[in-house]
Amino acid sequence: MRYIEQQAVVKRMNGRLIANSIFKYLFLAATLVALVALVILLYRIVSQGMGHLSIEFLTNFASRFPEKAGIKAALVGSLWLMLVVAPTSIILGVGSAIYLEEYAKQNRITTFIRMNISNLAGVPSVVFGLLGLTIFVRALALGNSVLAAGFTMSLLILPVIVVSSQEAIRSVPRELRDASFGMGATKWQTIIKIILPAAIPGILTGSILALSRAIGETAPLIVIGVPVIIQFLPAGVMDTFTALPMQIYDWSSRPQQEFQTVAAAGIMVLMAVLLFMNSIAVIIRNKFDKRY
Amino acid sequence: MTTIITEKPRIDTPTQKSVKKAVYETNQLNLWYGTNHALKNIDLEIKENEVTAIIGPSGCGKSTYLKTLNRMVELVPSVKTSGEILYRGRNIFDHDYGVEELRTRVGMVFQKPNPFPKSIYDNIAYGPRIHGIKNKKILDEIVEKSLRGAAIWDEVKDRLNENAYSVSGGQQQRICIARALAIEPDVILMDEPTSALDPISTLKVEELVQELKKDYSIIIVTHNMQQAARISDKTAFFLNGEVIEFNQTDTIFSNPADKRTEDYISGRFG
């Protein structure tokens, strides 16, 4: 006896095919909604800010007069911030990822730590701002300097770097470790010569994406008390500074209509920086394309 | 293939046999993965310059035993052992016996070809480099000698700087054998080295094993009984974590003492 009746299957075929195409268009629509929103956003900003974008805009300091307002202090400030955030967060993040993946024993405590690192990645950035205010600005008396803001931002993106580095390290095939250990290599030799080179594309991609999140964050900077209008460039990490998102936030909250175009131009600069960083991540990923 | 083997003089003539020294002496070895008793009271003596094959059905402990010989089994968490394994007279479980030191004397070739994602040259030079050899000229010589030893020099000598993954699977496995030779080991452990290879590559590796036993002691785990019969001098039959029978390969295959060995080699199970 047969369980599947051929005629019944044929009868049901039409309905299945209809459902098939319905879902196809449903998902297409979902993609289009996001895409259209993005295009509208970009169009508004570009059409508004294009007029104000010029070399002077990049080389001028902030000003009371919209036509003279420039983004120099914020752009250089953001670069200073990256100078602190990148080494701090990558060294700490990759270091903890190596410890958790390679050295730590599998037990309840490490499982708990792993789980909570993922949870930390979901903590709102304003909370990290308050943490930075308490520890770096007040307790360590760093003030609203590049260093204090950099450390705060590092803490903010650390969980993301740890998690992505852990994944990159975990994806290195076991066979490669076995081969290295089998030849009498120590754990450290295996990590530095085999595991890290194989994991570096994943680690760098994750780190750069995390850094581009740090460059766009505003809330922690506000909480720390980073000023907006500055007429000088920081000379060192102990100086105060301002950053791109702070500057944009300030311009967009001013009453004069002209400042809206200045803000739009600022957003374009910020997006150019983000696009530049993300394309570096893509280039790294393609260049080190794994071959095992 | 059998003709190649039978043309060779048998090495185990009684006069020579007494000269051969033991490389490994395993005494009452027990091993547990957690609560799973994987190896039970293993007693085996492995002689130098011989090929010792370990056969048995899946899960019988043959790979575990092989990996115990260079303590790679300890990479698995919650492994416990008792008993002793003497390597050249010294217990490898002694606290002052570093695993790194043991593994520089005992090379290993794995089931799946596992070259590093580096150039062929860097793959071979990896072992010597981690043991501190930096001189480029010496490294060059080691690389050539090892690749020649693994009978792959002529195939790759013009592409030493290419990625090791650019060659075929069979060539990759011989590169892995060359990589193991580069640390100038005393013993080579092979864990089903041909299970991922095609018949031609398998033949090449088998011929290579015959060559290598002049200079090295080889212990090979294999699923393939014909392979064990073709290439080994002695064969150990494992079943459920125990050594059922250990003898000259000829004897095991022509006149096994234990009924279970006979059943296994005649294909009645496994």
Please describe the structure with a list of short key phrases separated by commas or semicolons.
heterodimer; A: 292 residues; mainly alpha; MetI-like fold; 11 helices; globular; B: 270 residues; alpha/beta; Rossmann fold; four-stranded antiparallel sheet; 25% strand; disordered N terminus
What's the short story on this structure?
The complex is a heterodimer of chains A (292) and B (270). Chain A is an all-alpha fold.
Structure explained in plain terms:
- The complex is a heterodimer of chains A (292) and B (270).
- By secondary structure, chain A is mainly α.
- Chain A has 2 domains: 2-49; 56-291, Orthogonal Bundle (MetI-like fold), CATH 1.10.3720.
- Helix content of chain A is 75%, strand content 0%.
- Chain A has 11 helices and no strands.
- Chain A has helices spanning 6-49, 55-59, 72-103, 108-120, 125-139, 146-170, 174-182, 187-216, 219-224, 244-252, 258-287.
- Chain A is globular and about 85 Å long.
- Chain A starts with 5 loop residues before the first helix and ends in a 5-residue tail after the last helix.
- Chain B has 270 residues and is α/β, with parallel strands linked by helices.
- Chain B has one domain: Rossmann fold (3-Layer(aba) Sandwich).
- Helices cover 38% and strands 25% of the residues of chain B.
- In chain B, the strands form 2 sheets. Chain B has a 6-stranded mixed β-sheet, sandwiched between helices.
- The longest helix of chain B has 14 residues, at 136-149.
- The interface between A and B is medium-sized, with 23 and 29 residues.
Write the layout of secondary structure elements.
The complex is a heterodimer of chains A (292) and B (270).
Chain A (H helix, E strand, L loop, with lengths): L5 H44 L5 H5 L12 H32 L4 H13 L4 H15 L6 H25 L3 H9 L4 H30 L2 H6 L19 H9 L5 H30 L5
Chain B lengths: L1 H6 L6 H6 L2 E12 L2 E12 L3 E5 L6 H8 L9 E9 L2 E2 L7 H7 E4 L10 H11 L5 H14 L3 H4 L12 H13 L5 E5 L7 H14 L4 E5 L3 H7 L2 E6 L2 E7 H6 L4 H7 L5
Helix pairs in contact in B: 5-6, 5-8, 6-8, 8-9
